[in-house]
Amino acid sequence: MEEKTMSYPRDPAILEKKINYFFNSKDLLYMALRHSSYVNESRTNIQSNERLEFLGDSILSAITSKYIYDKFPDKNEGELSSIRRQIVERDSLAQFARQIELGEYLFLGKGEEKNGGRNIESNLEDAFESLVAAIYLDGGIDKARQFVLPFVISSTNIIKREHNLQDPKSILQEKVQETPGEKLQYVIVSESGPDHNKTFICEARINSNVFGRGIGKSKKEAEKEAAKNALELIGIKFDETD
User: Fold this and answer.
1) Which of 41, 53, 65, 179 has the least C-beta neighbours within 10 A?
2) Residue 75: CB atoms within 10 Å
3) CATH code for the structural domain at 2-163
4) CA–CA separation, 147 and 160 (whole Å)
5) Which DSSP letter does residue 44 get?
6) SS3 letters across 137-178
7) Edge-to-edge strand ranges of the sheet holding 184-192
8) To which H or E segment does residue 214 belong?
9) Catalytic residues
10) Domain 168-233 CATH class label
11) How many Cβ atoms from other residues are within 10 Å of residue 132's Cβ?
């Protein structure tokens, strides 16, 4: 391959060791690392990482969406979109790239190199998305998920601490998932009162066994109270001021 005769700071093989993924197709790895400036100056038919970036953006969004969908069962569509946006925004992806020193492996044109292209946010974001796509094409969605999830989980935990996103339903869901095969359900067992002032009673059930009951003026509030009650039953007191 032509790139092997070019000078670059670090061998992409070192990147494979760093991310613990070894490509079957080295062409995909090299493509993910090629900035358009390098391709333009090379005057050959090699491809830049722009197409991979397009694909990687969608894959990253899908993996992140599934994770936060499971992580925050009490959040609505708008809240989930806000969390996802914070995880996959440019600053976050550039930071992910810096964690694996991805900029050091990029193939850049001479002008882009002189302009500090290895540390430009947009270059790092694009390269990270491209690397996700390359792993997906080379090894499938499970390998892409294995690569992406540690970054997503770390970012989600930071967002939770900064914005107090934790809620009793999320905590209970995490506890239930610790035991494979356990199934958590929220069942509204009673509703009473006029339409403008209803009262709902909800049961939190694990494998059809009632672990908590809650009362609220909405189904969502009743489910939240049932989750709190279930957490108390297993020895966890939820404090919304934490």
Assistant:
1) 179
2) 18
3) 1.10.1520.10
4) 21
5) S
6) HHHCHHHHHHHHHHHHHHHHHHHHHHHCCCCHHHHHHHHHHC
7) 184-192, 199-206, 209-216
8) strand 209-216
9) 57, 129
10) alpha beta
11) 27
Per-domain residue ranges of the chain: 2-163, 168-233
**Residue 185 structure tokens:** 């359900």
pTM of the model: 0.69
- Using alpha carbons, select from 181, 198, 202 the residue that is nearest to residue 190: 202
C-beta of residue 39 within 8 angstroms of C-beta of residue 48: yes
Residue 242 tokens read as: 């934490």
Hey, what are 130's tokens?
């491209």
Model pLDDT for residues 187-235, shown as the tens digit of each residue = 999 999 888 888 999 999 999 899 999 999 888 889 989 999 999 988 8
Output 110-113 pairs: Cβ under 8 A, ≥24 positions apart. Answer: 110/41, 111/37, 112/35, 112/37, 112/38
